[in-house]
Design a protein that fits this description.
The chain is α+β, with helices and mostly antiparallel strands. The chain contains nine helices and 42 strands. The strands form twelve sheets. Strands 3-4-5-6-10-9 form a six-stranded antiparallel beta sheet, covered by helices on one side. It has a four-stranded antiparallel beta sheet with strand order 15-42-41-40, with no helix packed on it. The longest helix is centred in the middle third of the chain and has 22 residues. The chain is globular, with a radius of gyration of 25 Å. The termini are far apart. About 7% of the residues have low confidence.
Length: 630
């Protein structure tokens, strides 16, 4: 396949070995040698592609495309802004090339300007990223973090000594060669380019969650900014958690160590001291240079080695007496009918078809599987995303089926044939960050998507065109739900609010402020009068839609709620949590009915069949489970 790099192209995928895009007519080869084959990511003013160098035995490389824009539009060829951008771009590229062939920095192979866009060709590192290692093998142990710091800090010193700031340190951008050597990839744009004000409105330089406050708010970056991001990377690898789970917005602090304590783990005080100093919000309270960290690294390491020897002793395990009487069967408990196995990664999303004869599941293995929930047979596997699948949704009135991904794309499929119909969005009209929420309107004429770029988009699923964009949240959008009449859209966000929108006007008419942290999941009752939200603190909150007021808060889970679903008959609510349980609630009595504990990892998704008799749950144990009412 050849991928068209024109940001405005509506259908960029082309057959291999052609010279001109079949959709937009753009020339496909860059500099008459680089053929792009896959879009890897996009954000701010950058897009990244996997490509082959046809003048170098078709070897893989990475192409980074920089899009100078002015007032929201690409700068014209005669624009002084574009001329200045090209000048600064060339200067930056020359400085990067002056670093030479450092084995732990992805090499800049080439740089050029074509069609008013700026390009870099960068060495392709054929190995796993640290994020992929974590997802495959689990959380890192403390010795691995010390080793990581040992191997990477000298690389940071090399780039910082040359007045280069990476600006986008995260596990995705640290890869291992096959000889296990760690390599920094995807250096962000320089402060000189950023200072030209070329990025689109609302874009940030770096990745939210990893980038420090000064970078997100003002676009400023210092050596200490990279070191902050390195600290975030370390605590994510240590805990195996998503970054947003490690920060408490109500207290305004990182809670990574508490996460370790909850699972019976910890790190030495020496490492904790280093990481806490890396993670300070104020720039002047952090390490200012790699040299400062290296001094602490060497002085605190003996403490770590001593504690490691103590930790090597076998733990004392207290004996647990048997229960006095055998446990009694719960008359309200739902029975697990079957476990569906087929994914090779966490299962993030599930959805029943309108007739209940198909169940879709989306996974970290980048695939969607369609199942027969009656027999448990796999009907087909849909492959089209280049990163983990975060949300799936069936149209209530047609064979249309939608999936969204961390690759920032939304794909529409024919659920009956498995045929891919189209990708929604693109560089100008789509999302610029991962898309983790989808919802079809009850009449199927509208598809809503929510993203970490803080906005929602309403799409016409039949034309693939965006109807309108909804902006109001100040942080990532986690969850969406349509009211039964299709007029209202509810959105839950990391900013701890739940907002209600009129989809016909695009205006929000209520902002509901809770006291339970991030709003991870939302669902409307079948009569449309009540919304239930699942929150960071593990509680459910019931809201009165008409008055826009909180009705009650129901504590239940010991950790955050990831998913909420109303049964279609309105009698039950199911909540799935990172505490590995699913609670079924009698919503009229406002109390738990039973707790399902068969999953061995965090629960990411729950959904009822249309007849309310079957519950499907999906989890990090790579399974989907089907439950039957008593």
């Amino acid at each position: 396949m050849t991928y068209c790099v024109n940001p405005a192209c509506q259908n960029p995928q082309n057959p291999p070995n052609i010279q001109t895009c079949l959709s937009c007519g753009s020339h496909l080869l860059l500099k008459e040698r680089y053929r792009t084959i896959q879009l890897l990511g996009e954000g701010g003013m950058e897009r990244t592609f996997l490509a082959v160098d046809q003048q170098n035995q078709d070897r893989y490389c990475i192409i980074k495309q920089l899009l100078p824009v002015e007032n929201g539009l690409e700068a014209s060829v005669h624009s002084s802004t574009l001329e200045k951008a090209i000048e600064v771009f060339r200067h930056d590229a020359q400085r990067r090339q002056a670093m030479g062939d450092h084995q732990q920095i992805a090499k800049l192979l080439d740089y050029f300007e074509q069609d008013k866009r700026l390009y870099m060709a960068i060495e392709f590192i054929d190995g796993q990223s640290l994020l992929e290692e974590m997802e495959q093998h689990g959380a890192f142990r403390e010795p691995q973090i010390w080793e990581l710091l040992d191997h990477l800090l000298p690389v940071f010193k090399t780039i910082h000594d040359r007045n280069i700031i990476h600006r986008d340190i995260k596990p995705d951008n640290i890869r291992r060669r096959h000889n296990r050597q760690l390599v920094l990839t995807n250096l962000g744009i320089s402060k000189h380019l950023a200072s030209l004000g070329l990025a689109r409105t609302g874009s940030t330089i770096g990745t939210e969650g990893y980038a420090p406050p000064e970078q997100i708010r003002g676009g400023l970056a210092y050596p200490a900014s990279d070191l902050y991001s390195l600290g975030v990377t370390c605590i994510q690898l240590l805990t195996g958690e998503w970054v947003d789970d490690l920060y408490d917005p109500l207290e305004g602090r990182w809670i990574w160590r508490e996460r370790l304590w909850k699972i019976g783990s910890d790190v030495s005080d020496g490492l904790a001291q280093i990481l806490e100093k890396l993670l300070q919000d104020r720039v002047n309270e952090r390490y200012q240079s790699v040299t400062e960290i290296l001094e602490d690294l060497h002085s605190l390491r003996p403490t770590f080695l001593n504690s490691l020897e103590e930790e090597s002793l076998p733990p004392t395990v207290p004996s647990v007496p048997p229960p006095a009487t055998p446990p009694q069967a719960d008359p309200h408990a739902w029975r697990c009918l079957r476990t569906l196995k087929g994914h090779q990664g966490w299962v993030w999303a599930i959805s029943f078809s309108p007739d209940g004869n198909t169940l879709a599941s989306g996974s970290a293995d980048q695939s969607v599987i369609l199942w027969n929930p009656i027999t448990g047979d796999r009907l087909r596997t849909l492959e089209g995303h280049s990163d983990l699948v975060l949300s799936v949704a069936f149209s209530p009135v047609s064979p249309l089926f939608a999936s969204s991904s961390r690759d920032k794309s939304i794909i529409l499929w024919n659920a009956e044939t498995g045929e891919k119909i189209r990708n929604l969005g693109g560089w100008f009209s789509g999302h610029s960050e991962l898309v983790d929420a989808l919802a079809f309107s009850p009449d199927g004429t509208m598809l809503a998507s929510g993203s970490w770029d803080r906005k929602m988009i309403l799409w016409n699923p039949y034309t693939g065109k965006a109807i309108r964009k909804l902006r109001g949240h100040s942080s990532w959008v986690y969850s969406l739900a349509f009211s039964p009449d299709g007029i209202t859209l509810a959105s839950g966000s990391r900013d701890t609010t739940l907002m209600l929108w009129n989809v016909h006007t695009g205006k929000h008419f209520f902002t509901l402020y809770g006291d339970s942290g991030l709003v991870n999941a939302v669902a409307f009752s079948p009569d449309g009068q009540t919304i239930v939200s699942g929150n960071f603190d593990g509680s459910l909150v019931l809201w009165d839609v008409g008055r826009g007021e909180q009705i009650t808060r129901l504590p239940g889970h010991s950790e955050r709620i990831n998913a909420i679903a109303f049964s279609p008959d309105g009698k039950l609510v199911a909540s799935g949590s990172r505490d590995q349980t699913v609670i079924l609630w009698d919503i009229r009595k406002r109390k738990p009915l039973c707790t399902l504990t068969d999953h061995s990892d965090r629960v990411f998704a729950v959904t009822f069949s249309p007849d309310s008799k079957t519950l499907a749950t999906a989890a990090g144990d790579e399974t989907v489970k089907l439950w039957q009412a008593p």
